[in-house]
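check these tokens.
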Amino acid sequence: MTPAIAELERQQELLRFPSFDLDDAWRLGLLIVTVARERGLAVAVDIRHGEQQAFHASLPGTSPDNDDWIRRKSAVVRRFGEASYLVGERYRAEGRAFDLDPTRYAAHGGSFPLLVRGTGPVGTVTVSGLPQLEDHQLVTECLARFLAGSES
């Protein structure tokens, strides 16, 4: 069952950083890779701070297609300022097809804005390799874990 739009919006309200820098990008990326390896998941992970690629890892079983999905999903987040899965769910809820150029944008789960309280989006974290809901859940689970550890 897919999460309701209200729950997806709630995730974006909760999963906000007090600050976010390149060191945070590295630590978050390592956390996602560690969780993926523990679960035997074939995913690629990408974190961007602004337009700078701050972290990228491709685990066994991934391909260049995953990098293309990352590029297109993170483009949705940069354009809309919201999670790629949330954007796609809004279109689906309205019974509309996502109508932006599919060679540039993919409103599929797995990319999430890096949100800093009082600032707004400062980058993206993206996972590709699983079904879209699972990509989204891996990202949000790791964001929650990271934030719980950094704010304690």
